[in-house]
Amino acid sequence: MKFEHFIDFDRYGDTLFAQGKLDEVLDLFLRASEVLPKEDYDSEYFLITSNIASLYRRSGKMDEFYGVVKELIESGYACGNWIIKALFEMERDGVNMLLEKNNLLLERAQEKAKMQYKVCLPSDYKADRKYPVFFVLHGDGADGNIHNFSQYWTQEAFESLGCITVYVQSSQVYCHGGFQWNLDVERAKEDIRKCYSEVSELYSVDSDRMYVGGFSGGAMISVEFAMEDVIPLRGFISLCPGSLIDYFNAEKSVAASRRGVKGVIMEGDLDLEPSVQSILKGFHDTGVECKYVINKGLGHVCPVDLTEKLKEAMMFLFS
User: How far apart are CA 92 and CA 85, in angstroms?
Assistant: First the structure.
């Protein structure tokens, strides 16, 4: 089986993973150079290889895991938090030296990092009209960047409703090419404020119709941005947020309700987070309208029909 694009390869891997076929997923990623175009394989090498490391670890193949991670770090690729924790647990020669090198790589990457964003305008954009804006936030991890995430949360979902789409990339480094939102929440707030300020100056936006959403870590921080009134938001879409317990405050939720904030939370039924039910009850009790969607047969991934689900979510937020 050949794949024209990395996103198709990655989604196929997600499908196999959801079915519990770890050996098949591992075999797929080990053959990535054979089944992907060379350009895609080269550009996604770190993401592919870190996934191989993860699959080795899940399968209990710790020698193979260590070999892959060692090669990555010695080649200058900074690995993320879960790999660092796994290395800490290993007792073998060379681990401390690897961790030191990895920390240095992360420090150097963080020194260069800054918030970035990409603006996608509706095809009929005119400067004399005001447009709603949707800020799209990537998840935390190796694929946490604009390039990867914009292939899942496509502009089509928001342009169809006349929105300006803004893909925002955090200034907080997670690993080589990957970023995160939740390590430093105050810094995340600074990033979104700066993005909002610059987009508002450069484009004709309707400040009464601002929305935010994201996946995983981006889903978590989206709720915080909306509840905290970091920028003037009217709604959020939170896909696979994991634990939201730290981002709920009854007083802030009441204030958000008075501002007319609405939300949509989506989860896969194979990876339901118990704290989400507590948050939904909290929103109900404090007057925040929040729609809850369960994606059947999925875990912590973006569904294939995400564009249609996002359109439905936006119709709810607009209503």
Answer: 14
pLDDT digits (tens, 9 = 90+) for 12-23: 998 898 888 999
List the beta strands (DSSP E) in the chain.
116-120, 131-137, 164-169, 172-175, 178-180, 205-215, 235-239, 262-268, 289-295
Partners of residue 143 on adjacent β-strands? none
Instruction: Please tell me what DSSP assigns to residue 232.
Output: -
Q: In what order do the strands lie in the sheet with 235-239?
A: 116-120, 164-169, 131-137, 205-215, 235-239, 262-268, 289-295
Q: What CA–CA distance (Å, rounded) separates 116 from 130?
A: 23
* Residue 201 neighbours by CB under 8 Å, 6+ apart: none
Is the alpha carbon torsion for 85, 89, 95, 97 positive or negative?
positive
Instruction: Flag whether the pTM goes above 0.85.
Output: yes
Contact status, residue 164 vs residue 239, Cβ threshold 8 Å: no
